[in-house]
């Protein structure tokens, strides 16, 4: 279709027939009409050149199958439009006839449309009064072949039952009913395919093609929705300070990116982190999460300027309440996240950057990494369930040294005590990390998620959430106390 700036107006007609089973059969006809008196529009448009029509079925669950659609360039001639409108009128009348099956109706639509188009094209060619349009509607076989091509571009199916159904429909569409002999007992895959094909019985080849096309269209629509959701995750969650990306392999990477501030975490980064994780919980494409950082620091923990910046003019009590709710939400997201979270710690991790690691599933550290929880020197207390998990992971003695005295822990000690999974040298860290991530992504995702659900059972989740709430309430009280205020003033003095 040639697009150029022209005057235009759009006329649309739609109709819907609802069925008792929840399905809706509908149509839509849209055309452009040549009206030279219309004002000039800024965008390139087509005047009087295009006519579009479609018949679709909306199922009770909301999904839509487009059964027949047509695009015709009418060249602005009224006779073209009259013929097309008459054809759609007869098509829709036939479609609503209750006594015929949908398959027969569809085939009639296709055949009738082709006959009308050929008849009209012949008449136009013989009179040479107007140019013929171009129809976007093709034969069922051509649509089937296009669906085969489209299917190759979609992500592979993970459900074996769905794979068998697609195989069976393909064989039925190409060869008809199964007349072959059943494979031997030891050919499990062959027997499963044979059974799926045989189960279709005497389904016609056209019916098999139609069903195959419908499934591919639905998969393509879901894939498009998934891509839109992926864009939504990265666009709404990511920022200059928090980079969010989803790889083709299904890895959601969340990267702290404030190296000049030692990757200190501010409110916007907390909110972005929570959004990225929450939105990816139900996103099928995301198989795992990688939490990493830019620069030399993994993170220096909370950005203490959050305690002195008050752009909304809130009271100290309101600021403390807001901070406690934000922290509790972030930690709860880690507690309930159903997919594996991998942390890559390449440098010092302070405060919550250390405590949150106990809620990650795999923690890989560079040999130069240092772990520090200086809560009591800042007038604060443990968070991210560390008051519960650190004693369980490393024993009460070592946990008390970190949480009460603020003693630092080396990368080697983090591995030895169970806080980290493995340590790698500086030269091999990125290579080893990528190897471990690739290994994780190669595992069956449902198996991984179900296994994690067993490890972090509902009772454990409930316990962690209760501890998280208690920790955040304790922090809120301490933030309003004199000790934390004194620590913040000292921080501000050092800063200036």
TrEMBL record:
<dbReference type="InterPro" id="IPR001753">
    <property type="entry name" value="Enoyl-CoA_hydra/iso"/>
</dbReference>
<dbReference type="GO" id="GO:0004165">
    <property type="term" value="F:delta(3)-delta(2)-enoyl-CoA isomerase activity"/>
</dbReference>
<keyword id="KW-0413">Isomerase</keyword>
<dbReference type="InterPro" id="IPR023393">
    <property type="entry name" value="START-like_dom_sf"/>
</dbReference>
<dbReference type="InterPro" id="IPR035984">
    <property type="entry name" value="Acyl-CoA-binding_sf"/>
</dbReference>
<dbReference type="InterPro" id="IPR014352">
    <property type="entry name" value="FERM/acyl-CoA-bd_prot_sf"/>
</dbReference>
<dbReference type="GO" id="GO:0000062">
    <property type="term" value="F:fatty-acyl-CoA binding"/>
</dbReference>
<feature type="domain" description="ACB">
    <location>
        <begin position="140"/>
        <end position="225"/>
    </location>
</feature>
<dbReference type="GO" id="GO:0005777">
    <property type="term" value="C:peroxisome"/>
</dbReference>
<dbReference type="Pfam" id="PF00378">
    <property type="entry name" value="ECH_1"/>
</dbReference>
<keyword id="KW-0576">Peroxisome</keyword>
<dbReference type="InterPro" id="IPR000582">
    <property type="entry name" value="Acyl-CoA-binding_protein"/>
</dbReference>
<dbReference type="InterPro" id="IPR014748">
    <property type="entry name" value="Enoyl-CoA_hydra_C"/>
</dbReference>
<dbReference type="Pfam" id="PF00887">
    <property type="entry name" value="ACBP"/>
</dbReference>
<protein>
    <submittedName>
        <fullName>Enoyl-CoA hydratase/isomerase family</fullName>
    </submittedName>
</protein>
<dbReference type="InterPro" id="IPR051053">
    <property type="entry name" value="ECH/Chromodomain_protein"/>
</dbReference>
<dbReference type="InterPro" id="IPR029045">
    <property type="entry name" value="ClpP/crotonase-like_dom_sf"/>
</dbReference>
């Amino acid at each position: 279709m040639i697009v150029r700036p022209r005057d235009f107006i759009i006329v649309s007609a739609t109709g819907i027939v609802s069925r008792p089973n929840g399905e809706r059969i509908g149509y839509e006809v849209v055309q452009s009409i040549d009206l030279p008196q219309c004002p000039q529009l800024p965008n390139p448009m087509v005047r009087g050149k295009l006519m579009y029509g479609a018949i679709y079925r909306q199922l009770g669950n909301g999904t839509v199958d487009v059964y027949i659609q047509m695009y015709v360039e009418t060249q602005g001639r009224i006779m073209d439009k009259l013929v097309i409108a008459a054809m759609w009128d007869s098509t829709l009348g036939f479609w609503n006839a209750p006594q015929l099956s949908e398959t027969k109706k569809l085939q009639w639509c296709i055949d009738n449309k082709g006959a009308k188009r050929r008849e009209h094209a012949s008449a136009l060619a013989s009179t040479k009064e107007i140019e013929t349009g171009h129809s976007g509607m093709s034969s069922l076989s051509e649509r089937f072949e296009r669906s085969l091509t489209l299917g190759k571009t979609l992500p592979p199916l993970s459900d074996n039952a769905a794979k068998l159904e697609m195989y069976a429909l393909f064989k039925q569409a190409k060869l008809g009913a199964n007349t072959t002999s059943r494979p031997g007992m030891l050919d499990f895959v062959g027997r499963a395919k044979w059974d799926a094909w045989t189960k279709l019985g005497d389904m016609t080849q056209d019916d098999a093609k139609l069903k195959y096309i419908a499934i591919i269209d639905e998969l393509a629509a879901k894939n498009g929705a998934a891509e839109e959701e992926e864009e939504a995750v990265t666009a709404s969650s990511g920022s200059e300070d928090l980079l969010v990306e989803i790889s083709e392999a299904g890895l959601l990477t969340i990267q702290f990116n404030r190296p000049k501030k030692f990757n200190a975490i501010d409110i916007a980064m907390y909110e972005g982190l929570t959004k990225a994780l929450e939105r990816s919980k139900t996103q099928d494409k995301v198989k795992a999460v990688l939490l990493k950082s830019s620069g030399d620091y993994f993170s220096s923990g909370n950005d203490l300027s959050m305690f002195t910046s008050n752009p909304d003019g809130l009271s100290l009590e309101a600021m403390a309440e807001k901070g406690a709710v934000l922290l509790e939400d972030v930690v709860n997201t880690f507690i309930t996240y159903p997919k594996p979270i991998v942390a890559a710690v390449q440098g010092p991790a302070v405060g919550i950057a250390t405590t949150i690691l106990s809620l990650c599933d795999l923690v890989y550290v560079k040999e130069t990494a240092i772990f520090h929880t200086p809560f009591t020197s800042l007038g604060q207390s443990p968070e991210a369930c560390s008051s519960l998990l650190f004693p369980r992971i490393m024993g009460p003695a070592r946990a008390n040294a970190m949480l009460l005295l603020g003693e630092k822990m080396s990368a080697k000690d983090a591995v030895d005590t169970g806080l980290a999974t493995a340590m790698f040298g500086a030269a091999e860290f990125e290579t080893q990390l990528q190897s471990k991530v690739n290994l994780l992504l190669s595992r069956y995702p449902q198996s991984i998620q179900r296994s994690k659900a067993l490890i972090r059972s509902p009772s454990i989740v409930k316990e962690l959430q209760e501890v998280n709430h208690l920790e955040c309430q304790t922090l809120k009280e301490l933030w309003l106390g004199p000790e934390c205020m004194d620590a913040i003033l000292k921080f501000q003095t050092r800063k200036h």
